[in-house]
């Protein structure tokens, strides 16, 4: 019996059995073009996903903690001081006031926002989305913080006048003169601020201008009088101080006016005036335009050359698949080699640091460049490997068909596989880098590292008696900025006292509280003696509303507005409730906070959700009470869920971690970290709010209780570096959680 002939899966492809010399040349050129085109597609896609992507720069800055290092390393570097002082010459508040409260004047969130504006402006210009480069810095947030800082410091001096209808203008004038003298001598001035009549403004202007060279007084007078007429002593001082301090400083005043024009700083003009060659960016923009054209051309050439390889191939579909795969894989390998050569060729940097730069700046720039190169290489390898994997898949498929011909499908199916895999590999090399490339990490409570931590694993800087502020003219304030500014500067939990306005009889009883100094008792008693009847409504007070009060509902509205403007932040309120729970619930709903309120689990033993889960839910306002427990499900008694340390320390040496309210086994831990000795002690706060002092106590209490501290409650949150200590606690916990 003769053997039956083997069936052929499909008719042989047309074409000669052996390629001619011309065909070999065409195939060789097509192979080289295909590999080079794939290489070009991968590299241009990498550049667009990194150098031209705002997320790339934001990711580099975040991973190197650039914003934190600005405060902890760069601004405190002695070699940076001359540059810092030159920059501060543009600001309408004396240098000492700014530098001692830099995180209030220029909070990290503001720095991030300003930086993001410039990153987007630059990348939009390079990509051709905008026709002109405009690096305009919106300094309105900075100016608002400066104004608030000035108001705080000025208000401190005249807090004892808050209930007077007519201020002591003679004292105001004397204090203003003393402040100017202090400024001339290089000391931080203590400036008063008071609403002035037109006549008073003119008289104050005389005081200010008396220290200005006579030839310049008349030119400055109108601006000074207008500023003083609206109580803006900071601007009046900025206008006159430069002329009073040094010869030739009139230029600084002109620079100030230019810088603050309309609340916008035209950084482009400033850079150009300083001698920077901005034409470099214009040339870079032109290259980017050519890069886009090159990417399109490379994609077309890759498809065309691969099509030529297919149509000029011989030996059946399997060998053609292998030829396509080899070209793709070769292009991917070349791209990987080119990307890996980036580090040795560039030395891991794009910018040479100058020997004259301060060490802190050099270190930060070097770390940023190293991180940028690492991310660029990782993104490039992703694109290269996409092409390589596609090529290997095509080659392996063709080889499998050669080894087992009976499994080979019909020619139409083979051509479909070839076209599909080829297009997918090219599309991957083109699109994977932008999709999977570096981007700014998601942030929770100001940090990308905290998103996966639970609420009960995170530490929150807590303002003790947050409503009792210098800004709101409380007698014996325990904080300086108002509540919104506290939130801006990193506070994430507020201890608030809710009250009805008291009668004189109530006050007499409350004045026995040892928190009040004799001077405070005298001031409050004087307030009782004047015609000052009780006021309707709900208030935030510190023991006695006549010692200072702000309305509850408007304050809650401000907190809600801040939360909506900061959608990745969580705020906690711990309420010392002297009003009923039903009144509190009504106040929160009147303030429009219903959709922001988080409802804790009924069982205090249950783990809390992660910060990411709370932010995604939109329920980012947690409210506890010291007395009440409901009836609203979101209004829970703190001591069911939390425990605390004692709080009646009269000196730092008395501080302990002993159990107080809430026992010892709760999930949340409140560290009361303030000294009360006849009122809040600003001087002691300067000691105990120091980063190392606070960290040592927090870690000791954590070890003693076996639980992480969640709320670090301090007086004067802007004194010392309590925020830095809290951030260090959180950084350590995030590292442990990885």
Automatic annotation (TrEMBL):
Keywords for the protein's UniProt record, in alphabetical order:
Membrane, Transmembrane, Transmembrane helix
A matching Pfam family = PI-PLC_X
The domain of life is Bacteria
Q: Where is this region: Disordered?
A: 1-21
Ranges that cross the membrane: 291-309, 321-341, 376-402, 414-436
Q: Where is the composition biased (Pro residues)?
A: 8-17
This chain's protein is named Integral membrane protein
Which organism is this entry from? Kitasatospora albolonga
């Amino acid at each position: 019996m003769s053997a039956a002939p083997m069936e052929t899966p499909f008719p042989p492809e047309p074409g000669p059995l052996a390629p001619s010399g011309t065909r070999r040349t065409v195939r060789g050129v097509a192979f080289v073009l295909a590999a080079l085109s794939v290489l070009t597609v991968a590299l241009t896609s990498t550049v667009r996903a990194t150098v031209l992507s705002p997320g790339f720069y934001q990711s580099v800055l975040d991973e190197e903690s650039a914003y934190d290092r600005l405060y902890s390393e760069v601004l405190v570097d002695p070699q940076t001081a001359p540059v810092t002082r030159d920059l501060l010459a543009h600001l309408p508040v004396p240098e000492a006031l700014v530098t001692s409260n830099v995180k209030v004047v220029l909070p990290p969130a503001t720095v991030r926002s300003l930086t993001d504006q410039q990153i987007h402006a630059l990348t939009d210009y390079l990509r051709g989305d905008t026709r002109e480069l405009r690096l305009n810095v919106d300094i309105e947030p900075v100016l608002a913080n400066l104004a608030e800082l000035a108001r705080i410091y000025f208000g401190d001096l005249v807090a004892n006048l808050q209930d007077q209808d007519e201020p002591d203008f003679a004292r105001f004038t004397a204090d203003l003169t003393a402040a100017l003298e202090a400024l001339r001598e290089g000391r931080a001035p203590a400036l008063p601020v008071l609403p002035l009549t037109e006549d008073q403004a003119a008289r104050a202007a005389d005081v200010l201008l008396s220290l200005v060279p006579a030839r310049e007084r008349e030119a400055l007078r109108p601006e000074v009088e207008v500023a003083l007429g609206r109580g803006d002593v900071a601007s009046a001082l900025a206008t006159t101080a430069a002329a009073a301090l040094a010869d030739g400083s009139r230029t600084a005043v002109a620079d100030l006016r230019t810088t603050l024009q309309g609340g916008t700083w035209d950084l482009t003009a400033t850079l150009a005036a300083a001698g920077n060659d901005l034409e470099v960016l214009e040339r870079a923009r032109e290259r980017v335009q050519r890069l886009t054209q090159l990417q399109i051309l490379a994609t077309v050439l890759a498809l065309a050359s691969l099509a030529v390889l297919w149509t000029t191939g011989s030996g059946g579909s399997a060998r053609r698949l292998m030829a396509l795969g080899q070209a793709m894989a070769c292009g991917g390998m070349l791209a990987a080699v080119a990307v890996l050569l980036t580090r040795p060729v560039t030395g891991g940097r794009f910018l040479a640091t100058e020997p004259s730069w301060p060490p802190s700046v050099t270190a930060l720039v070097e770390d940023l460049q190293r991180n940028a190169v690492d991310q660029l290489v990782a993104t490039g390898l992703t694109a290269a490997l996409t092409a390589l994997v596609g090529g290997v898949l095509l080659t392996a498929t063709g080889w499998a068909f050669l080894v087992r011909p009976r499994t080979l499908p019909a020619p139409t199916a083979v051509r479909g596989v070839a076209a599909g895999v080829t297009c997918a590999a090219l599309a991957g090399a083109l699109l994977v880098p932008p999709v999977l490339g570096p981007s700014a990490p998601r942030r929770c409570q100001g940090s990308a590292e905290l998103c996966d931590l639970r609420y009960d694993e995170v530490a929150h800087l807590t303002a003790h008696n947050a409503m009792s502020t210098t800004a709101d003219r409380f007698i014996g304030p325990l904080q300086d900025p108002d509540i919104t500014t506290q939130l801006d500067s990193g506070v994430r939990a507020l201890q608030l006292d809710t009250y009805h306005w008291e009668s004189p009889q109530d006050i007499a009883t409350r004045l026995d509280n040892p928190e009040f100094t004799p001077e405070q008792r005298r001031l409050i008693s004087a307030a009782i003696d004047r015609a000052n009847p009780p006021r309707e409504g709900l208030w935030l007070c510190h023991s006695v509303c006549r010692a200072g009060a702000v309305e509850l509902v408007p304050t809650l509205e401000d907190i809600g507005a801040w939360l909506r403007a900061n959608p990745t932040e969580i705020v906690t309120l711990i309420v010392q409730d002297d009003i009923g729970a039903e009144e509190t619930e009504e106040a929160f709903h009147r303030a429009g906070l219903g959709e922001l309120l988080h409802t804790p689990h009924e069982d205090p033993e249950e783990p809390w959700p992660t910060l990411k889960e709370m932010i995604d839910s939109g329920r980012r306002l947690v409210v506890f009470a010291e007395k009440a427990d409901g009836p609203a499900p979101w209004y829970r008694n703190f001591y069911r869920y939390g425990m605390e340390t004692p709080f009646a320390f009269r000196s730092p040496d008395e501080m302990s971690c002993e159990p107080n309210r809430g026992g010892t086994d709760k999930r949340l831990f409140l560290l009361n970290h303030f000294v009360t000795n006849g009122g809040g002690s600003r001087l002691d706060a300067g000691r105990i709010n120091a980063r190392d002092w606070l960290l040592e106590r927090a870690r000791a209490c954590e070890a003693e209780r076996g639980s992480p501290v969640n709320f670090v409650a301090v007086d004067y949150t802007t004194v010392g570096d309590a925020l830095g200590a809290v951030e260090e606690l959180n950084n350590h916990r995030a590292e442990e959680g990885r």
